[in-house]
Every structure is written in structure tokens, then in C-alpha cells.
Amino acid sequence: MTGIEYADFVDDGYEPRDTDLVCQFVLDPGEGMSMVDAAGRVASESSNGTWAALNVPDRVTELSATAFDIGDGEVTVAYPGDLFEAGNMPQILSCIAGNIMGMKAVDSIRLVDCEWPEELATSFPGPQYGSDVKTEILDAEGRPATATVPKPKVGLSTEQHAQVGYDAWVGGVDLLKDDENLTNQSFNRFEDRVKQSFEMRDRAEDETGDRKDYLVNITADTETMLDRLELVAEQGGGFVMVDVITCGWSAVQTVREHAADHGLAIHAHRAMHAAFDRLDHHGVSMRVLAQVARLTGVDHIHTGTAGLGKLENEDTPGINEWLSGDLYGLSDVLPVASGGLHPGTVAPLLDALGQDIIVQVGGGIHGHPDGTEAGARALQQAIDAYQDGVDAATYAEDHPELATALEKWGTGSPR
Ligand SMILES: O=C(COP(=O)(O)O)[C@H](O)[C@H](O)COP(=O)(O)O
Ligand SMILES: [Mg+2]
Fold it and tell me: Which of 13, 254, 339, 385 has its CA at 20 to 30 Å from residue 403's CA atom?
């Protein structure tokens, strides 16, 4: 037997093992606590300790986390791989982002970054396609893929919604996308929308000769999501969309398994992420949420607009770099830039993020004075201009849809 208390969870000179999950936190100790006091409590509560000193069998201490590299408001915690259940993301998060978020020992604490050990990372499937959706499901090789979300986000009838999709597809957009809060409301039933939209999709494909697809929002309770996924597969869709934060990672893991049976890619919308990541001193960073999304196997995830859109963003280029980097052979994830974009912001967006992204535009297409099809053309023209190395204003001289968009919105970000 060994006695354990908070101080036993601190070893400032600790060298992590290859099998450890290593997590970086920033924290502000609670009143009367030193950094070391707070760090020991964090490592204890997030692994296998409690507030009371315990006598435990020796084996138990092998599962304890260790706080080290304790600096001014920063600490790294290493968790032994055996603390975790393979392939169980909720269990992992209940350790590393669980009770510690509300401990009195810290006034605030933020999980900033994780280094995932191979055995744990590869106990998850990772994405089926990642950036390969650009060539395996779409015809978007060598350019950013494009998507559009109809606006108003809810309220269009099924027919109106499908018509907006058709107009956008023939205007040049690759992907129609449901908004995060459009699912199966009375005015636009899921089943009807899916059937009518794929009929329109087939027409648009025939007319343009390009592959087109639809990011269908299946968000609901998990069993309903699986039924909706089956319907999308039956109708010949290539993607399902899931609001991953509001549905939860357990549901994402289940959807991932079923999506694989049909070869469907998963588009992850991150609505509610800012409840976790907006404050820079508390919560869970978008970087970590994106890591979790990659492990659990989404093919796309929204990662912001590098400050060019309407929403607060945290280090979009750094997150995108992580999503495309090596992770023990797991597929990459195609990042989605979305939220307040329009043709005038395409060039700085692609400068900041490169072309291996999805450019997702709602109001910046449907708010075009000449309608959705013209708005879609304007977006494509802005991308063509960028690829030709010509600035948008010059390209607009003989591209009237782009000229109208630039006249309306200029090149600034909306608020
Ligand atoms: O509907 C939109 C964008 O519409 P619009 O183009 O009209 O602003 C999305 O929900 C945002 O992408 C969410 O933000 P993020 O992608 O940052 O999660
Ligand atoms: Mg939306």
C-alpha cells in the first residue's frame, strides 16, 4: 500500500513517456493556492486522486497523472495511457476536461493543447476521407472546395430551400449545406428536403457536368441521426452533417461507424464551441476540440476564418496545420472557413489559410443583389481571380457578378 495526497501528483522534473497523453493547461490558482498546490489538485482530480489522503494498492499509483513544467500560470500534465479506455472519447474528456474545470483550487483553467500517444490515437478511426473528399466525392482538385448555406437559416419551405440549392450549384458551388439549426421543422421536413434536394442536385450535375453534393444536417438524438443517415445514403448523398458539440462525441463516434458502412463523409459544424473556447483563460481550446473531432473521425470541421469573418476566431492557421499534419497515419481533416465571408474576403482568406479548405459562404452569396446564382458566380470568380494571381477589383472589370458583390460589400469583414 502507498499513501497518496495532492503533492504526490507533482514532479517538476518529470519526463513524459511515449505512452502518456500530455496535456498543456493554463490556470489561475484559487485564493490562497500556489501554482504547485493548484497543479497537484488538477493532476489528482483528473486522474485518480481525491481531496482526502488515501492509502491505495501500489498498482493504483501507476495510473496517477503527473503535473510538471510548472510555470507562471502554466502547467503540463502527463496521463499514463492505461488510465484511458481505448476508443472512448467521452471517458478521456471526463478525465482531462472534467471536474477540474470547476474546482475551487483554480479560479480558471483552460486545456490548451494535447499530445496524443500513438496507441490511444490509433484506437480511434480518424476520418474516412479528410481532404480526399475534394477528389473522391467532388471535382475540386487544386482549388478550395466551395459550400453555401441558404439564408434565412430557417424559414424557407422545402421547395424554396431546394431551389436555392439548385441556383447555387448551377452558379458554381460544390456543396449545399443545411444550417446548424435546420433539421426537421414543420415548415421544411427532413425527408422531403432530402428527396427534393437530391433531385435538384442531379439536375445541376447534368447541366454543369460537375459533381455536386449536399451536407445534410442529421443532428438529432443518436437513433434518429442513424435513420436520417440511412435516408441520405439511399438518396445517393455523399455527406452527413452533425452539430458535433451539441450532439456530443459519443454520438459522433456512433455516426462515424454507420457512415463508414455507406461511405458517407461527415461534415462537423461546431455550434456552441465558443461556450468552451471563447475565453482565453478558461475552458477547452478550439485546437483541442479539433483534435477530438479528427480522432473521432469527422472529415470536415469549421475552424474559423483567421479573423476575416463575423465570428471570433482562435488561431485558425495553427489549428488547420494540426489537422493536416501527420497523426500516426490517420487521415487529415479538411478545414471549413465560414461565418461572414463574401467574395471580397476570398483573397486574404486564401492567403491566410491556403487552398486546401472549404470556403463556406451564406449571406455573402444569397445577399447578392442579383440573387443566389449570381452570388455563387461571384464567389467562384473571386477564387478564379486568386488562382490567376489577379486582384479581385481588376478581375471584376469583366466579371459583372463579382463587380456587383464588391460594390455591395467591399473587402471588409461584417460585424
Ligand atoms: O451559417 C454560418 C455562416 O453563414 P454566413 O456565411 O451567412 O455568415 C455558419 O453557421 C458559421 O459558419 C458558423 O461559424 P463557424 O464556421 O466559425 O463555426
Ligand atoms: Mg450557420
Answer: 339
- Confirm whether the ipTM is greater than 0.90: yes
- Secondary structure of residue 241 in the 3-state scheme: strand
Over the stretch 384-404, which tens digit does the pLDDT of each residue have? 999 999 999 999 999 999 999
Q: 135 and 110, same structural domain?
A: no
**Structure confidence at residue 314 (pLDDT):** 82
Which residue in the list 151, 195, 258, 408 is annotated as catalytic? 151
Q: Which domain holds residue 188?
A: 130-409
Domain boundary, last residue among 88, 104, 121 = 121
* Buried/exposed 269-305: b ≥16 CB within 10 Å, e otherwise: bbbebbebbeeeebbbbbbbbbbbbbbbbbbbbbbbb
The share of the chain scoring above pLDDT 70, in percent, equals 100
Name the closest-CA residue to atom 17, ligand 1: 304
Residues with CB under 6 A from ligand 1: 149, 151, 179-180, 270, 302, 304, 310-311, 338-341, 360-364
Instruction: Quote the ligand 1 centre to 6 CA distance (angstroms).
Output: 44
Q: Reply yes or no on whether the pLDDT at 312 is more than 90.
A: no
Neighbouring-strand partners of residue 2: 56
Identify which of 146, 149, 161, 336 to mutate to test ligand 1's pocket (most ligand atoms within 8 A of the CB). 149
Q: Can you give the pLDDT at residue 185?
A: 98
Label residues 306-319 b or e (16+ Cβ within 10 Å = b): bebbeeebbbbeeb
**Overall pTM surpassing 0.95 (yes/no):** yes
Q: Could you tell me if residue 20 is inside a domain?
A: yes
Judge whether 415 lies within some domain: no
Amino acid at residue number 297: G
Per the structure, the count of domains in the chain is 2
Q: Round the average pLDDT of the chain to a whole number and report it.
A: 97
